[in-house]
Amino acid sequence: MGRLKNKGILLYILAVVVLYVIIYIVPKVTGLLDVTYVAEYGELSIFDEGTCYLVRNERVYLAQGTGQISKVSAEGTLLRAGSSPVSVSGAEIGTPPEELKTIRESLGDDAASITGYYLEKGGIVSYYVDGHEAELGPDTMESLKKSYFDGLSQDGVFFIDKLAYYDYPIFKVVSNDNWYVVAYLSNAKGDYETGRRIYVELDGASADGGSRRVEMRIVSASEEDGYLKVILKTSRVIDSLGALRVTNGKLVASDERGLLIERQSLVVLDGKVGIYVKNTRNKYDFVPVNIIGENGDTVVISDSYYYDENGERVRTADPFVDVLRDPSGLDGEPFGKQNGSAEEPQNEAEDAGGDAGGDDAGEPETEDGG
User: Fold this and answer.
1) Which residues have C-beta within 8 Å of that of residue 228, sequence separation ≥ 6?
2) pTM of the model
3) Residues lower than pLDDT 70 in the chain
4) Whether 199 contacts 364, CB under 8 Å
């Protein structure tokens, strides 16, 4: 009986010890194992997100009668000048919807009234209108202010379905050359130099309602009311070109390749930006780095070596080194604010590390036709 009692006490003590290890020791050991991470080679997209406004060279046509619409040409069809995309037949059908009345009032005299609906110029036919076709175009988008664009809404786009009302919009024609995107960016991270080509991802731009990535050329970038107003153009046709006016978008300024590290690992020591990497003696050495790009908490740096501002070759981190995640206990000051700052010190250098500093990976190669 005594032996069984002693055995029970031992099992109880053992269980307490195991629980103690699980609750107190294991988390600490796990934390110790998590102080470093491996710097791996990869790609980082430098992008900005914001509301995008689509601008087109477009002309609204007015119905010459009231009745049922027969759509000879479907949404998005490219037609030549002189083609007729619709016909109207039937009797009186009541009054137009209030939305269509508002759109007609906004258009004023800037709409086409042509018997037979023959196109003045060729283009892409669309049955979506919002009344801004006359006021907003390639020749006015530069001068129109943010307050105007803030007043635009995708909910204000009206779809002309089956009924035509005399002297009210029945369809529009979008020029099939260049169309534009106007975006207002807050705290822009990308390089928006005029003439550069970048990719723009537009929500709702594909046929199934999903996003679509479009290659575009930067027309201009200017400061306005604390925002960067970026205007881009392309001649590439998207499925919802005539329907979209306002949508969420992502401007992918570049796709940078190099070693991916956490921003919190960066420190400034003796005026140089760098990281601490573990050596063969399980100690940490400061290694200067050349920042290629950053987005949020992730930074891409040159690997192996780079050339500094004096043309000197500088040895830097190799792929798969162990990087100290939080260097706050070692020499050096934290690298700026966690969200980045234009005044942070940089190792201005020409990248030359392996493939990390090759050609301009973020620059598409094809032309946009104008």
Assistant:
1) 184, 185, 186, 188, 192, 221, 222
2) 0.72
3) 1-8, 21-34, 337-370
4) yes
